[in-house]
Structure prediction request, 391 residues.
Amino acid sequence: MEDKEDYKIEDELEDEPEFTIGKKKYEYIRKIDEGTFGKVCLVKDLNDNKEYAIKFLKENEDKNQEEYLKIFKKEIGILEKLLDEKNKDYIPRIHCSGTFKSKIKDKEVPAFVLDYVKKTDLALYVIESDKGIGEKFSKYIFKRILEWIKICHDNNICHFDIKIENILLDDNFNPIIIDFGFSEEYKDSNNHIKTFTGKRGTDYCMCPQMFEENMQYSGIEADIFSLGVLLLGIVTRKKGFEDANYNERYRYNLIKHKEYGEFWKVFLGENEKLSTELKNLYVKMVAYNQDERPDIDKILKDPWLNELNELNEDQKKDYIKNYKSYMTSIYNKISKSNETIEKEEQEETNQEKQPKTKGGLSYDNVVYFKSGLTPKYLSKNKINFKYFVKI
Prediction:
């Protein structure tokens, strides 16, 4: 066991895997991932033998731990607020919260237990697709995502970190939202719309107002902008605002001044085609003027989604069947890639240390996550889509 200065909660749990949160007893299986505010591990409930994900508050020396605790408790509160039987297919349910009593650190670590989503994250499916999921099946994914964002907005919650890394897929390949660490209520106690300033979330998904000093913006409009970036990422396997902090031609020169023809020429190149309906929806969602961005209800009725909206029950069943078949084929490719990686790792047991990483992304490679969300590394010539999972 490492000393207290190098303490890792997963190391303690590997030595003594059984532990208690609240009145429930769990068995540690393995670490899944770690993000800005927490570490996520896979556990088994010893009462019902089901697997769950548990999120522990992460210690961080660079920021006031009290602020981390405040954000962590806020996420629990938001998940509990959204806890409803009708929401279970969109948002992971929180089963319990409490503290983990660390014997090594002699302290209590805040934690909460969530549904475990087994089919892993949407980013992997986009990575393994040839040129993105494409418009046909992206409509289904995106409509479901819109529905869960509507649930959030209807409950006075803005997510503030909508991105492909924060979308998991369940056993039926339905998208499920995770990571509410940046979320906020967008109305105050008097039911007035709040305004925000400064950065919230992840740079390439942030609305342009977040990059301008003292510029006010609405939480709902910020979510709509991020949804636009997400949509184009799912369909094309590209980021709509690559290097948002540095490459101003996308946001300011082209989007701000509505030079959309030039934008599509730069973004897509000469050989890639998108439907006019998708292009029109995208530019509305990422409009520089936040008042021009449509709300969720309008997007759900947009012409790009008409094909899906107009299906009768039999047609819808056939569509979903084909969707599941398509996603299963990608899932099989992911599994095959995992097998290849694991075989290579076994053959290189005496290899040197792993590549140095920064923020989950290696300098020479792109982080790849197997279906169990264990980080893996593949060369850039095998993966050129630079998303990485963060919970």
